[in-house]
Amino acid sequence: MMNTLPQYKRLVQTSVTNFLHCGDEYLFMERHPGQWINAGEMNGIGGRLEPGENYLDAAIRETKEEIGLNIDPKQIELCGILKIDGGYDEDWVVGIFRISISSKNLPVGDKTLQGDALHWIHKNKVLTENYKLVDDIRYIFNDVAEGNHLFFMNAVLDENKKIKSHTYSKIARQIK
Description:
This protein is mainly β. Helices cover 13% and strands 39% of the residues. It has one domain (12-172): Nucleoside Triphosphate Pyrophosphohydrolase, CATH 3.90.79.10. The protein has helices at residues 55-67, 137-146; strands at 12-22, 25-30, 42-43, 45-48, 76-85, 91-100, 117-122, 149-157, 163-172.
């Protein structure tokens, strides 16, 4: 039988985005204008997976590298998976995590080790205030903050790296 599906030949990058919270306050990183990705926009803490690394280990490592904070896996909850098609040279598969911490006092103060500004924002203001957020946060943040569902999102980006279409599915978390 002949395969009639077009061949998909784009590279895929893997990364994590961590939303650290202390109570109802969430930590956002504002990328400085010189960054190659999301310049001037706010997002959670994160970055690419290293070769041979899994998503959980990357979440722990990126938190340490960005803000100097050691995280225990017990503090981490997987919120969802985000797949991004288009907009960049590669597609992305991003593990989205929520990390509970007991204090807003960070080892790095108010800037990441790379010099990006850090901001604590109350969960009720993230989507209602005029913050310059990475586009996907407007779709996923409520499920990140509520923590009742595991979500799966696919976003198709335009040439300006903005979402032009998406699918979004979620399942209720199983309570033990």
